[in-house]
């Protein structure tokens, strides 16, 4: 199936999730996430979920990782539309956030972090397949960012749904996930 077809299907599937079901699935994802065999992390890059898109909430995962990795530095992206990339900022109590034109909360300014310093990335997605290929929103920001990270960076997707059909139109620059955590399974690629 093509990325665009999967994008349409999974946006629709997410939109049909009720609040109680979303909370239940979120709790199951958190239980499964704790099964990951992770090393000690120093820098965690995370997306800030877009509520209107019903993205998996990363906050419980971040709280768990902060507890199990004392001193963990949290990093969040800001889109750099002029260069079709992202700038990465430390996210702490002093970070001022604002919504961009895609309704994504982003830091206005702050201390930047080099992608090579990041140990793990929580990668947003709409769908993924059994090979670890993912479908995002179609702009390629995360693939460009992940190509700048170390080869051993851990790339984790979070999904309310299990792996979908094979993504037929992957490109050479698409970077597969290391893991994807769903309510019922941890996929390792």
Walk me through the structure.
There is one protein chain. The chain is α/β, with parallel strands linked by helices and 189 residues long. The protein has helices at 3-15, 19-33, 59-68, 141-146, and strands at 43-46, 73-80, 85-90, 97-99, 105-107, 120-123, 127-128, 134-135, 154-158, 179-181, 186-188. The chain has one domain: 3-Layer(aba) Sandwich (Rossmann fold), CATH 3.40.50. The protein is 23% helix and 23% strand. The protein has a 7-stranded mixed beta sheet with strand order 3-2-1-6-9-10-11. A two-stranded antiparallel sheet has the order 4-5. A two-stranded antiparallel ribbon has the order 7-8. A hairpin with a 4-residue loop joins strand 10 and strand 11. It is globular, with a radius of gyration of 16 Å.
Please sum up the structure shown.
The protein has helices at residues 3-15, 19-33, 59-68, 141-146; strands at residues 43-46, 73-80, 85-90, 97-99, 105-107, 120-123, 127-128, 134-135, 154-158, 179-181, 186-188.
Secondary structure: elements and pairs:
Blueprint: H1 3-15, H2 19-33, E1 43-46, H3 59-68, E2 73-80, E3 85-90, E4 97-99, E5 105-107, E6 120-123, E7 127-128, E8 134-135, H4 141-146, E9 154-158, E10 179-181, E11 186-188
Parallel strand pairs: 1-2, 1-6, 6-9, 9-10
Antiparallel strand pairs: 2-3, 4-5, 7-8, 10-11
């Amino acid at each position: 199936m093509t990325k665009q077809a999967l994008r349409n299907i999974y946006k629709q599937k997410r939109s049909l999730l009720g609040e109680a079901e979303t909370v239940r699935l979120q709790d199951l994802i958190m239980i499964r996430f704790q099964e990951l065999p992770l090393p000690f992390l120093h820098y965690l890059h995370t997306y800030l979920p877009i509520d209107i898109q019903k993205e998996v909430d990363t906050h419980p995962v971040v709280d768990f990782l902060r507890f199990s990795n004392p001193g963990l530095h949290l990093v969040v992206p800001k889109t750099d539309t002029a260069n079709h990339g992202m700038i990465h900022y430390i996210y702490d109590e002093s970070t001022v956030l604002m919504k961009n034109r895609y309704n994504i909360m982003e830091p206005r300014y702050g201390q930047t972090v080099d992608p090579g310093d990041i140990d793990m990335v929580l990668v947003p997605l709409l769908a993924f397949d059994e090979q670890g290929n993912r479908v995002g929103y179609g702009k390629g920001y995360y693939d460009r960012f992940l190509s700048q990270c170390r080869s051993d960076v851990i790339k984790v997707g979070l999904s309310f749904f299990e792996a979908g059909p094979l993504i037929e139109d992957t490109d050479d620059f698409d970077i597969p996930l290391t893991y994807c955590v769903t309510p019922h399974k941890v996929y390792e690629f």
